[in-house]
Structure formats: structure tokens, C-alpha cells
Amino acid sequence: xxxxxxxxxxxxxxxxxxxxxxxxxxxxxxxxxxxxxxxxxxxxxxxxxxxxxxxxxxxxxxxxxxxxxxxxxxxxxxxxxxxxxxxxxxxxxxxxxxxxxxxxxxxxxxxxxxxxxx
Amino acid sequence: xxxxxxxxxxxxxxxxxxxxxxxxxxxxxxxxxxxxxxxxxxxxxxxxxxxxxxxxxxxxxxxxxxxxxxxxxxxxxxxxxxxxxxxxxxxxxxxxxxxxxxxxxxxxxxxxxxxxxxxxxxxxxxxxxxxxxxxxxxxxxxxxxxxxxxxxxxxxxxxxxxxxxxxxxxxxxxxxxxxxxxxxxxxxxxxxxxxxxxxxxxxxxxxxxxxxxxxxxxxxxxxxxxxxxxx
Lengths: 118, 231
What we know:
The structure holds 2 protein chains of 2 kinds.
Chain A: H1 11-24, H2 37-44, H3 48-60, E1 64-67, E2 71-74, H4 78-102, H5 107-117
Antiparallel strand pairs in A: 1-2
Helix pairs in contact in A: 1-3, 1-4, 2-3
Chain B: E1 4-13, E2 16-26, E3 31-35, H1 42-49, E4 57-62, H2 69-74, E5 75-78, H3 90-100, H4 106-115, H5 129-141, E6 147-151, H6 159-171, E7 178-183, H7 186-189, E8 195-200, E9 203-209, H8 210-217, H9 221-228
Helix pairs in contact in B: 5-6
């Protein structure tokens, strides 16, 4: 995973986004065991408390779950993963539509352009 | 309970007020950046915590008690200058630390030296500046202390050494111990910090968590620091 950080956002929320992306893209498959907080923190070069906070947020969103002694795992619930994937995709579409609108394209114009490209 | 607490702490050197009415507390499990421009009072505060200086007014408490013999067993201190006898080898220094500190983990120190490819029989004076800084940090971080006070641990080292030093701090993270890192190189340490304390002209200008600053100000601690301390 690429662990570079933007300056204008909290580090923990960037960790959440990064791990989320790894899960929806399948880089971290369903049921996969996550490395320990300390190892993940070392890999990302961040404070373990910050990594812990990010993992707790992912837990809250249902993307990972922890088992008392065995550690943390990626959820096996595909519907949760698909849902998050869809939310992320919608976000991408929204910013794409916004950028296209600034260029002067309406919905139909965009569709025509996409077809042209095929 | 706070591992380090300052109550109305002031320190005066003759006519110079180095610190004035400092109130702060640091909890175990936190990695705290003590940030401020040169001459703001960072080193004075760290020396007070080590009992190397005594307060002019107010108090500083380590684990609830004034600095003294008991607190020295809890505090692992990395001074901002080289202080190790330069005729000693890395191995002799490990023996020296093991004699001095009951909490010194000699095995761990040895492993860390090996990992860096530092020959234990090498004397301090034969080492490069970067290697000397690494050896000092390894010795200090190999104690199982409750409070680590690191005064400018990354000043004047190359980026790879700096990464190694920060990596060592993360690897040695212990939820029952606090780490205080004094520096003015904020961008380099920002990612490993929980909280920051800005010191300005002997006063605490701000105490906050890193992510709080990023969330509220929409900028890095480094950028915010430059704004607050604009010359």
C-alpha cells in the first residue's frame, strides 16, 4: 500500500480511506486477517494510536471485525463491501460530473462522448 | 494518572524568564511533540523534568513526584548533545547502561545494533555522526521506561537515519509509557505524534492533538506552526 499523506486532512481519516480502498479493490480479500496495529503503524510510519483509531472507525463501518484473541479480519459480508464500493464509485461519478459540467457538458453530452470513445 | 505534570512552572535565569507559568499534563501511551522555535524553552522544560534544573516557581511532577532518584529510574533521557564518553565501544556502553539502569534491555539493544550493522567493538569516536546518534537513541529506547524525553533526536541526521529513528520510536511504542519529542522539524515527526505542545517565549501557546489541528484548521501541524510563529 502507498502510505503518503495529504497535509489538509486528519491522518486517521486518510488511513481509513486507504484501507477501505484496499478492501473494496480486493487487495485485502474478505476474511483476510489484518496485520497487528503495531505492524500496520510501522509500515505506514504513523503513530499506533492513530492506526488504532482508523481500525476502530473501519470496525464501526462494518468493514473489519475483531476477534478477541485472534486479531482483526476483513468482513466476510460481501454486501457490506459492495455497498461501500458503490458509495465510493458514486463519489467518483459525482466529481466527474462536476468537472464535466464545468467544461460545458450536460448529461447527454457526456453519454455521447463516452459512446464515441468506445 | 499523568506521567508528567507541570503546575504553574516557571524558570528564570537571572533576568531571563525561560519558562513562565507552564501548566500541562502528559498521559501514558501518548507520543507528544514539544514544538517551538529555537530559544522558546523546550530544552529548559526537558531539563527541569530530568531534575538537571530546579524550578524558580511552581512544580513539575514525574509520576506524581518531584524529579529525584525515583524519577530517574522512570525517565529515559536523550540529551540534545552527544554525552557518551567517546573512548567507549558500543559494547562497553551497553554494559554501562545495564549497570546503571535496572530496566535496560541489553538483548534488545544488541539486536538493534546488529540490525543496523553496527559493530559492537567500534568506539564512539570512530563512528560517524549519524551512527553516534543512532547508538545514543538505541541505548535510550532500550530502557523499559515510563517516560522517554528525546531532545532533538532528529536534528542534523540524514533522511534515512531520521526514518530509522522514527521507526524505532514507533516499534518501541508501549501503551504504559509516554514519549516526548522536542524538535523544530515538525513536518518530519508529525505522522508519529498523538499530541503537540507549542511553546513560544516560555509559554504554552497551544496543546492539541495532531488530528484535531488538521480537522479544524484544514492544514498540517507544520503549516499551522508556521502561521502561529510567523517571524
